[in-house]
Every structure is written in structure tokens, then in C-alpha cells.
Design the sequence.
């Protein structure tokens, strides 16, 4: 399953390779890496009773479909970031920097409370 997510992220990068600047591609890659870490930390939440997920979409999806929902949620979120960034050429660096900063904050917070990268 993790290979599918990586493949989807790489396909997004291939799609923007000719039109995006190197900075834009680096920011998209950073978003993908941070989202993958966040996804794996989210998987760790469901392996421990002392933690709970605060994102209601993920919590509903896992309750309805099981933890297999998590990779699809993050792949969709990454795809949405790519599509928005692709349409907002002049705002692309700001958008990708902002989304990376928010995700980095989540990853740092998750790590500070003891979440690990769950497989």
C-alpha cells in the first residue's frame, strides 16, 4: 500500500516537471514527504489506545472502512494540494510553503506526544 502512495506522489511530480520551477517542485516534494510521515504517524494512533485522531474525516473513514482508509485519505489530500498549486501559478510557492508549514507543525506535535512512524 505504501508503494502506491509513493507512486501517486511521484506521478504528480512528473506531471508538473516541465511547467514548474525547481523551487515549486522542491516544495511539492517536501509536502509529500511531510504528508507521508503524518500518514504513518496517523497509522500509529490506531495502534495505541492512549491516542485519538482529531481529524473527523480520518476518524470517520477508519471507523467505517478500517485503517486501510488512511493511505487513500492522504493520497487524495496530496493530489488536492497538487491540483490547487497547479492552478495557482503566482501563489504556488506561498500555498506550498504554507501547507508544508502546517503539516510540519502537525508532525512535530505528533512526535512530541510520542507518536512514531507506524507501519
Sequence:
Amino acid at each position: 500500500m505504501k508503494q502506491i502512495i509513493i507512486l501517486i506522489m511521484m506521478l504528480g511530480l512528473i506531471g508538473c516537471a516541465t511547467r514548474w520551477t525547481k523551487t515549486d517542485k522542491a516544495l511539492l516534494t517536501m509536502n509529500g514527504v511531510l504528508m507521508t510521515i503524518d500518514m504513518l504517524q496517523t497509522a500509529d494512533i490506531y495502534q495505541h489506545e492512549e491516542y485519538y485522531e482529531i481529524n473527523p474525516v480520518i476518524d470517520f473513514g477508519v471507523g467505517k472502512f478500517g485503517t486501510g482508509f488512511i493511505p487513500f485519505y492522504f493520497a487524495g489530500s496530496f493530489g488536492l494540494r497538487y491540483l490547487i498549486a497547479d492552478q495557482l501559478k503566482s501563489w504556488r510557492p506561498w500555498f506550498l510553503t504554507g501547507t508544508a508549514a502546517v503539516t510540519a507543525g502537525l508532525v512535530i506535535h505528533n512526535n512530541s506526544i510520542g507518536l512514531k512512524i507506524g507501519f
User: Anything to note?
Assistant: The radius of gyration is 15 Å. Residues 40 and 117 are 5 Å apart (CA to CA).
